[in-house]
Amino acid sequence: MARTNHTMVKKYAASQSRIINDETFFTSPMMASYFEDIAEVITKKYRPKEHIYVRIDWDKSPNAPTAYTDHKSIYLNAGCQLVLSQNTRQDRFLVLTGMFDHELAHLLYSDQKYKLTVLEQIDNGLLTPEPDVPFPKTKDFLLKNNRAFRYAYKEVYNSFRNAIEDGYIENRFLDEYPRCSDGMKKMRSVFYDTIIDNLKELKKKETEEDSIGILGSIFSLVLSYAKYGCIKVNKYQMHDERVQACLKCVEHIDFARTITDSENHFMEIHNVVAVLEDYILDYIQSLDIDPNCSDEDILASLTSFSEVISSLETSDSTDDTEPLVPVPNTAETELSENENTNNMGEFPDFDTAKSNDDTFESTELNESKAETHSPFPVTDEKESFTPKESEDQKEIMDSIFNEGNLYKEDISPSGYEQVENDTKRILNKMAEQKAASELETQRTRTLNIFANNIYYGDIHAGCTCTVKRIASVNNQMISDYEKIIEPLKEISRRLQRGVRQVLKDKKNGGKITGLYMGNRLNSPSLLRNDGRYFSKNKLPTETPKLAISCLVDESGSMSTHDRCTYARATAVVIEDFCRNLEIPLAIYGHTTGERTSVDLYSYVEFDQIDGNDRYRLMDISARNCNRDGYALRFAAERLLTQDADIKLLILVSDGSPNAENYSGIRAYEDLRNIKNEYRRKGIILFAAAIGDDKDIIEEIYGDAFLDISDLNGMPVKMINLIKKFIK
Predict the structure, then answer these.
(1) Could you say which of 60, 173, 237, 649 has the lowest number of CB atoms within 10 Å?
(2) How far apart are CA 240 and CA 217, in angstroms?
(3) In angstroms, how far is CA 428 from the centroid of its own chain?
(4) Do 281 and 214 touch, CB atoms closer than 8 A?
(5) Residue 197: is it exposed, middle or buried by C-beta count within 10 angstroms (0-12/13-18/19+)?
(6) What CATH number matches the domain at 456-508+544-726, 3.30.365.10, 3.30.1510.10, 3.30.499.10, 3.40.50.410?
(7) What pLDDT is attached to residue 50?
(8) Distance set, CA 182 to CA 81, 95, 102, 413, 498 (Å)
């Protein structure tokens, strides 16, 4: 078979690569396949039988999701601000890779089932597992069976859970996959730059409209420490209550970032939320939710929290495709209209609660509230105060406080070189694919011109013809091909071995033994009793050039008894056989639509452009009627264009012709005339009958008839027919 015309494609692709913009580049199937290949390699240890699908979008709207996973597929938004903040395509590619690595880490390390269990328990007024830190106030309100409080609490809890889990999964990924972590490192550095780096700015945001107050500032600090092990404020501001609140969580965050056991991991997250109990309860109190409001109103009241959190957590590490609120950049949430709301009472009377047990008192941290988890003394002095430190405290502070400096991960020079190589390779493949697609479109136009310039005979007068060809093969077609190819490939290989020996003998010559007469006695044959004692030398000869065209009937009756499936399998075997032996091959399908319109389907062409013709065979289907004579003339005329000594045309059909004004004796006579006409022109026609009308087909084609009643044996019989002409 003629090889793929790489020179033509590459020449055309060179001009295409210069006009491919970032949106086209990042959202291309090539890019998605690149990430899917990485996912397959990395996840084979944890999820060996699952294929992770990747979808890449380009959405620049402010509230568009950044990235998420449903634990079966990964969504990436290449148009998000995190990516677009970079100036070069290589840096954008690195950040996008980091986003992908982050979601992949969720797939590897996040315990989705346990998370759902924990959130379900909150719905039921419980905390599982039980936290170590005293948690009386929140527990009391959870047990009061108030759905509004639980909704609000779960929203806050889930945001802190996700922030801490981000730190856990990212750091674990960096430890376990250091050789493919440059993207994650780049993404983390870019994200770190977005974190507010001073208390003044944090306090300013607390006063903005729709602010969630001091809880938002604390979340920013907790997020920074959970992901990076440091907070972006000056260590001499450590006495501020926001910083102190974060410091009291440090021990629990450290455990949560390193513990792989799900129960203990979630217990430490509970502990963090328990430490921040007063702040969380103050926030929920500020919502002032009507106890009789609908679920929709409750969700609307929580939107401000989600929006603020999304502005602080722009990496969007959500691992749920259906978040609670319309801003998916928050931590994942499981709330929906279908959640369990049974046994939920009214929203508590916060004023009464305050007077009875001081649950919602103002939370100014002071010495009386300081917990033993903080390694630092609490002071009421102003920010200008410089605390006295022990050496141990100084060492701890130096590790926790980053003094507002930028966080930079070391990306190896080879990492940048690899990114450059990968982007160039993907770009070149995209350009070649785009070029091939356009060349295939041009080819389709050429085939239609060719088809409509053929004289089909008076019997087909008035018929119109359309040649159809898939310009670009999609992933589904490739997947379908891979599912069926292995047993069929084995048939092809077995037959190839026999043919290769024949071709070798023709090329090199050899000895023919077992002859009844001759002038050379073959000594080993004397032991035979059949008189075949002689041999002769065979001179080297040139193998005759062979070209093959296969025409598949795609009439509706081909759906009966899986005939179309067997015909498709036969086409696959023939294509693999011819491609490996470099025999020029064309495969077409045909059907007749409304009245006199003929549809011809080009699956395999003599000269391939993109090398994907074998996947196009997956489109072979049972369709409408069949006007065999029209399609045979087209296939024969295409075959005549080939420079070959032997031209073989094979028709695969399950019955006699049946189309408008084309059936019975009239159609049979047309087919006989076509067979005889093109035989005179050097084309050998065979009709392979696979249906109930084989007697009629044999009557039409005579010695050109091939009986394939056993559909299982069809591929072998067809290849043996080809072998006959090679020999």
Answers:
(1) 60
(2) 11
(3) 20
(4) no
(5) buried
(6) 3.40.50.410
(7) 78
(8) 20, 9, 12, 10, 51
Quote the Cα angle for 711-717-720, to 5°. 165
Per the DSSP assignment, residues forming a β-bridge with 536 are 512
Cβ–Cβ < 8 Å for 645, 684: no
Q: What are phi and psi of 535, to 5 degrees?
A: -145, 165
The answer to whether 521 and 537 have CB atoms below 8 angstroms apart is no
* Domain layout of the chain by residue ranges: 22-109, 116-404, 456-508+544-726, 510-539
Give the closest residue to 225 by CA, choosing from 198, 262, 251, 263: 251
pTM greater than the 0.85 cutoff: no
- Which CA distances in Å does 164 have to 157, 233, 329? 11, 19, 15
Beta-carbon count within 10 A of 334 CB? 18
In three state form, how does the secondary structure of 78-141 look? CCCHHHHCCCCHHHHHHHHHHHHHHHHHHHHHCCHHHHHHHHHHHHCCCCCCCCCCCCHHHHHH
The residue written with tokens 């609000």 in the block is 152
- Give Cα 225 distance to the centre of its chain: 33
Please give the Cα distance from 39 to 533 (Å, whole number).
Answer: 65
Question: What is the predicted pLDDT for the residue at 1?
Answer: 39
Contact 201, 189 (CB under 8 A): no
Residues 484/489/494/499 CA torsion (nearest 10 deg): 130
CA distance 243 to 239: 7
Single-letter residue type at 96: L
Considering the domain delimited by 22-109, tell me its CATH architecture.
Answer: 2-Layer Sandwich (3.30)
What letter would DSSP give residue 406? P
Q: Cα 290 to the chain's mean position, in Å?
A: 45
- With tokens 């509706």, the residue in question is 556
Please state, in angstroms and rounded to a whole number, the distance separating the CA atoms of residues 63 and 296: 19
Q: What residues does 203 pair with on adjacent strands?
A: none
DSSP 311-380: HH-TT-----SS-SSS-TTS------TTS--TT-BPPP-HHHHHHHH-TT------GGG--TT-SS----
What average pLDDT values come out for the chain (727 residues) when binned by 10 residues? 52 61 88 90 75 93 89 93 91 93 92 90 84 82 77 88 92 88 89 78 79 86 89 79 91 91 92 92 81 71 62 48 29 33 34 34 32 36 38 58 57 70 80 81 94 92 92 89 92 82 64 64 63 63 80 89 88 92 93 85 92 94 90 95 91 83 88 92 88 78 78 77 74
* Residue closest to 370 by CA, chosen among 265, 238, 268: 238
Provide the pLDDT for residue 535: 67
Single-letter code of the amino acid located at 607: D
SS (H, E, C) 209-229: CCCCCHHHHHHHHHHHHHHHC
Please list, residue by residue across 161-170, b when 16 or more beta carbons sit within 10 angstroms of its beta carbon and e when fewer do: bbbbbbbbbb
Please report the sign of the dihedral spanned by the C-alpha atoms of residue 453, residue 458, residue 463, residue 465.
negative
Q: How far is residue 603 from each of residues 504, 555, 636, 649, measured CA to CA in Å?
A: 30, 16, 16, 15
* Residue 474: half-sphere exposure toward Cβ, Cα within 13 Å: 3
Q: Tokens 């290769």 label which residue?
A: 500
Predicted local distance difference test score (pLDDT) of residue 606? 94
